[in-house]
Write a structure and sequence with these properties.
The chain has 14 helices and two strands. It is an all-alpha fold.
Length: about 325
Amino acid sequence: MRAMASAAATIEPGARALGRGLSTFFYRRSTFYLLLLLLPPLLWLGTVYLGSLFALLLQSFYAIDEFTATVVPKLTLETYRQLITHPANVDIILRTLAMAIAVTLACAVIAFPIANYMARYASPRMKAFFYVGVMLPMWTSYLVKVYAWRLILAKQGILNWGLTAVGLDGVLETALTTPVIGGPSLASSYLGMFIVFVYMWLPFMILPLAAALERVPQSLIQASADLGARPRQTFWGVVLPLALPGLAAGSVFTFSLTLGDYIIPSVVGAPGYFIGMMVYQQQGTAGNIPLAAAFSVVPIVLIAIYLMLAKRMGAFDAL
């Protein structure tokens, strides 16, 4: 027992000295310590995310043999040629892009007054209430919300009943008979799909926009008013430029999520494929992995173009 105690007493100072040595080593080399901490998540990101992304990009340069329906692992642009020259594929891309732009604009218009009130006028208790109210729908299952909206927008649904009760059934009929956006019912029209998209992605616009508006100094708004600017001039000249980073962040969420979603167009809306639905069908039912990969590259390219335009407009200067 004495021998074990003496050995432990000998090891303990050595362990302390080693610990101090390592602590001093990492303290003097803070950059190396930071890289060591970041190494596991970077390896995970590089292997799982970037690795799968590059594999997807590589698959898009393959083609499928028309006779054997097997993927030919040879680099070619045939799949991209089919993507941009086939009228049906071009129509799918344009339809998805138009819906994504419309949803993003609608979310921005609806979210701005809500976020502005949350950031500038609401009391602390009311602000907490608003944040919970905005985030509460995000705690519910995505599929439950989509199918609930399908029932709400049905021909005999609660929305149709409510509009009829207040005498707005004529407005609904006019909207449903409008070309392109109309249909037999809201649940079977692009207008209904648009409503569900806006409902789903609106919190992703409100939260970053409210955070950006909270950082707008009140002194600048007061100075603008003191210099004789009207509220509209203050909004366009002071508030909006400073809120652009939050608006850009929220629009990236709404734009990209709409581009890639395949569940909402499958459950709600008029017949017609979207990019997400084509990716799901081509890699699943049809087994055309190269075409599915080429369709998957389209949202990536569109988001990259959007980010470059936003950066050129100065949307990220205040970040």
